[in-house]
UniProtKB/TrEMBL annotation:
GO terms for molecular function: exonuclease activity; RNA binding. GO terms for cellular component: cytoplasmic exosome (RNase complex); nuclear exosome (RNase complex); nucleolus. Belongs to the RRP40 family. Residues 17-63 form the Exosome complex exonuclease Rrp40 N-terminal domain. The keyword RNA-binding applies. Residues 152-198 form the K Homology domain. InterPro entries: Exosome_RNA_bind1/RRP40/RRP4 (IPR026699), KH_dom_type_1 (IPR004088), KH_dom_type_1_sf (IPR036612), NA-bd_OB-fold (IPR012340), RRP40_KH-I (IPR049469), Rrp40_N_euk (IPR041054), Rrp40_S1 (IPR037319). GO terms for biological process: CUT catabolic process; exonucleolytic trimming to generate mature 3'-end of 5.8S rRNA from tricistronic rRNA transcript (SSU-rRNA, 5.8S rRNA, LSU-rRNA); nuclear polyadenylation-dependent rRNA catabolic process; poly(A)-dependent snoRNA 3'-end processing; regulation of gene expression; TRAMP-dependent tRNA surveillance pathway; U4 snRNA 3'-end processing. Keywords: Cytoplasm, Exonuclease, Exosome, Hydrolase, Nuclease, Nucleus, RNA-binding, rRNA processing. This is Ribosomal RNA-processing protein 40. It is found in: Cytoplasm; Nucleus, Nucleolus.
Length: 233
């Protein structure tokens, strides 16, 4: 792990290379033809997977820049022909085809309304193009939890908090899940959908996420437990 700045060259090379937030692959002309280089577009900590196939920069921001394969939570803002325009908090709305759902056909497809919440995966992201979404897993073609989100509540938090919630080692969701049943969908675009049986439990979920957010209180496990006690949870 190292700290990088915008414009730094990144030694990312792999047959199945996948670049996450903060990284861009550019083609450059050399004496021997065309070569590609990976450069940093954001300041932050450089990370990669164990097999070095996935690379990304860890940085804290509230503006989301779409990257392929990332899960996001969006709101339908318009229906255009056979597709939807979805607000995912990026510079441009995303496009979601009405057939991009598990088992969807021209005769049998979801009928989303303006204002509907969806949990989707970014299938295409390019700085010069509108991002595209899908509501199924690319490998299995099954929904795998993607699709319309009904009920519940959406809490907005920093992008760093979303990445932390997706880390199995992070304490917050296991701690809350040990106190009451809950459903959570984490979007890497700074939005988290939460649902619980009781309203006070949903409120506790929201307030704990906000309190643990590095942009909020940044509370640790002990302080969150004390906070839950004050809420009577």
């Amino acid at each position: 792990m190292s700290f990088v700045l915008p414009g730094d060259h990144i030694p990312a090379q792999h047959v199945n290379l996948k670049l996450g937030p903060g990284l861009l692959q550019k083609s450059i002309k050399t004496l021997h033809g065309t070569d590609s280089q990976v450069i940093a577009t954001r300041p932050g900590e450089l990370h990669h997977s164990i097999n070095r196939s996935k690379w990304w920069i860890e940085y804290n921001s509230r503006r989301y820049v779409p990257a392929p394969q990332e899960s996001v939570i969006g709101t339908v803002i318009q229906k255009v022909g056979e597709s939807y325009r979805v607000d995912i908090g990026s510079a441009h709305p995303a496009s979601l085809d009405s057939l991009a759902f598990e088992g969807a056909t021209k005769r049998n497809k979801p009928n989303l309304k303006v204002g509907s919440l969806i949990y989707a995966r970014v299938s295409l992201a390019h700085k010069d193009m509108e991002p595209e979404l899908e509501c199924f897993d690319a490998q299995t073609r099954k929904s795998e939890g993607f699709g319309e989100l009904k009920g519940g509540f959406v809490v907005r938090c920093s992008l760093k908090m979303c990445r932390e919630l997706l880390d199995p080692k992070h304490f917050l969701l296991p701690l809350l899940g040990g106190r009451f049943p809950l459903e959570v969908a984490v979007g890497l675009n700074g939005r988290v959908w939460v649902s619980a049986k009781e309203i006070k439990q949903t409120i506790a979920l929201v307030r704990c996420i906000e309190a643990a957010d590095p942009d909020g209180g940044g509370l640790d496990v002990q302080n969150i437990k004390s906070f839950l006690d004050t809420l009577g949870i």
